[in-house]
Amino acid sequence: MEVKFQDGVDFSKLLDNNDPLGHFRQRFYIRKHVVYMCGNSLGLASKDAEAGLLRALDKWKEEGVAIWNIDDSKYYLYSSHLARLLAPIVGSEEDEIAVMDTTTTNIHQVISTFYKPTDAKYKILVDDINFPTDRYAIDSQVRLKGYDPRDAVKVVKSIDGKFINEDDVIDAMTPDVAIVFLPTVYYRTAQVLDMEKVTKAAKDRGILVGWDLCHAIGILEIDLKALDCDFAVWCNYKYLNGGPGSAAALYINRKHFNLLPGLAGWYGNRVETQFLLRQEFDHQKDAGGWQIGSPNVFSMAPLKGALKMFNEAGMANIRKKSLHITKYLMYLVEKKLKKYGFTIGNYREDSKRGGHVCLEHNEGYRISLALKDRGVVPDFRDPNIIRLTPTALYTSYTEVYEVVNILIDIMENHSYLNISLKRKLVV
Ligand SMILES: *Cc1c(COP(=O)(O)O)cnc(C)c1O
């Protein structure tokens, strides 16, 4: 049901009372007098996530090395254990997912696996506005194979520094392109790329295609099975609330299980022969075979509880709430903040926007700090973007209303003008 929004705190309370996901909030650690709007960057801790972590710690205390064997070798096989919970969230089969390392390491893993350049086909297609670690990894992979990134990394230019046009990506899919690697949701403007259109175009041209789902996972409904891309990577600490530096994940389409991993290690060995400790690598022929070393148990344990909540809530419901609460925020921005020079920097169409609202203002940096002084946690991205993320599982509509009122207050009192322009290390 599409609700017509109204101004006023009573209306925000009405929305909270009608929110079918509202009850999840009590399972999170919500600080008093703090409105957390940064779940796109690092999701909040929950009691469920904490329980998983404490359990792993207890098992280590009680069992020592036997931790690997208890509960049907759960911790030894921890990646596949967690993959079971991730599979419904990305619409793949569980043996197509490995939970491991960081997103950046996993990009190295998939690219070193899939990038087999020939004289005729040696380019990797990327864009110029993705989060830069992806590019650093791609450039270094190309260099490792003896190519110059200025030649072998083909960069699709954004329209205006903000958005990428899918047709520009497709036009750039020339016969010399071996792999297309792009983000599903852009970290600055929350633009959602049409994965289906781009994947189909790449496949039609015999180009391998991989997706970075970092800003998409836990917010979009993703169906990797239907998409049939070749590989994907993502982190689990943003919308999925797995904790700071939580282990990331990769997806390998099962049709590629016979490939050897670019970066091999003993955890990619077949489970049954791993502890025979032979010198020859006996590749586990599923995504688990792309693991490198031992599972980072304490970076994985919070995920158990965190992911369980996503499965309980269901991705369709999460997407629905996210679209609705961000639309409410945009309604309030248009109605109440326009006169202070704020504009909305993301696309308005539901199909083209992810989980955050991109609030633009020339004084964005200092306003974002003024918000922090007032107990609101946003983040800031150059040159003028305040990212505000009301999440589906722990943000209330009343909090959204409050943030907009605090912004009005900051602008009316010019309180941001007292803040130094000197930058902090993590913004
Ligand atoms: C968050 C994010 C990452 C994070 O990389 P780590 O190696 O896990 O620190 C990488 N790529 C994109 C596009 C991201 O949004």
Task: Explain the overall architecture.
There is one protein chain. The protein is α/β, with parallel strands linked by helices. It folds into two domains: 9-30 and 314-418, Aspartate Aminotransferase, domain 1, CATH 3.90.1150; 50-312, 3-Layer(aba) Sandwich (Aspartate Aminotransferase, domain 2), CATH 3.40.640. It contains 15 helices and 13 strands. The chain has helices at residues 9-17, 47-63, 70-73, 78-90, 103-114, 132-144, 149-152, 166-171, 195-204, 224-227, 271-274, 297-313, 315-337, 364-373, 397-413; strands spanning 35-36, 97-100, 123-127, 153-156, 177-183, 208-212, 231-234, 248-252, 343-344, 357-360, 376-377, 379-381, 385-388. Strands 2-8-7-6-5-3-4 form a seven-stranded mixed sheet, with helices on both faces. It has a four-stranded antiparallel sheet with strand order 9-10-13-12, covered by helices on one side. Helix 1 packs antiparallel against helix 15 (397-413). The protein starts with 8 loop residues before the first helix and ends in a 14-residue tail after the last helix. Pyridoxal-5'-phosphate binds next to helix 5 and helix 6.
